[in-house]
Amino acid sequence: MTATTGLSFRAATEADVPDVVALVESAYRGDASRVGWTTEADILDGRRTGADEVAPAVLDPTTLLLLAESGGELVACCLVSRAHDQPSDEPMAGSAASGPEVAGPAAHFGMFAVRPGLQGSGLGRLVLAEAERRAADEWGARRMVLEVISVRDALIAWYERRGYARTGRVSPFPYGDERFGVPRRADLEFAELVKPLT
């Protein structure tokens, strides 16, 4: 039996908040995260998320905190948010737009975490596909937008293999705001990627 056997999806409830926080932290922070390949332990210390961020997302009607369970256990999660902005013709400061521009409603993908010992099993691909399907079918989203720390080359390549492309837009990392972690290097920024949804 693998993590993808009997996989089921559901929206998170308030009772799930502690488990979601623990999952996200385990996938990105500390030595435990090094079991998987999505760790940020070499670039960031501190927290990745907390109940103060997860609980409001559960209650927000414009977001979906999607849980993936296998055998009754939480194995992955992601946060999909409605975003109604149109793509700009002008790139963000310091960038050169090069990716696809798709008009229409957008959804934003984030807080993506797969249990470290299950990373590389195909589970993440299934969670991403379910998030895209729900955003398109339930909200009418025509594109999915996400941001990745630009030095995360392997993670960006993973998204590119799933149809995402860099837009060329970047945004600064919130240095000094420990809610987003404590940086271990001075060159962090977010790269925007987008995928058209059909």
UniProtKB/TrEMBL annotation:
GO terms for molecular function: acyltransferase activity, transferring groups other than amino-acyl groups. Keywords: Acyltransferase, Transferase. It holds the Pfam family Acetyltransf_1. It comes from the Bacteria. SUPFAM superfamilies: Acyl-CoA N-acyltransferases (Nat). InterPro entries: Acyl_CoA_acyltransferase (IPR016181), Bact_Acetyltransf (IPR050832), GNAT_dom (IPR000182). Residues 7-189 form the N-acetyltransferase domain. CDD domains: NAT_SF. PROSITE patterns: GNAT. This is N-acetyltransferase. It comes from Streptomyces radicis.
